[in-house]
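Memo to structure team: turn this sequence into C-alpha cells by end of day. - J.P.
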Amino acid sequence: MKLKDLKATLLLHSAAHFRFILPDGDEIPAHFHITEVGHVAKRFVDCGGTLHDTRETCLLQTYVAADLDHRLDAATLARILDLGKAVLPNENLEVEVEYDCCVTAQYPLTAARFVGDHIDLQLGERHTDCLAKEKCGIETGGVTSGCC
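Reply from structure team:
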C-alpha cells in the first residue's frame, strides 16, 4: 500500500483507532508507539552479479512499551506521517511496518479496511528468493549446481 493511500484512509476516518494485523491474524499490541518514519533505499547486487536498482519504501517503526493504556488514533498517525515529509521524497512509496517481537521483522502494509469503529491495517509477508536462479543452477525442485 502506498503512503498516499494510507494517509487518505487515516484522514477519512480520523477519529478511529487503528490496529496492525500480522499475517497470521495476530495483532501488534494495541498500546504500540510509532517511533520512526523512515525512508529506506535498497540497492544491491544479487549472487549472480546483477545490479538491482534502488527499491525505496516508507518504514514505520513500532515500539511496544509498558504504558498499556497508550492508544494512537488515525489523526495522530496522520500527523506523525506528516513529520516524515522531512525525509520522504514523495508519497508514492510503499509502506512497511517494523515490529520487534522476539526478532525485528518488516512487513509490507497490504490493505486498510474500516471495520466497525476502527481501521484494520493488514500486514503481509516478505520472503527471500534467489534472483539469479539460472546462473545459480537452481531448478524447480532443487539446486543442481551453483554460485553460492
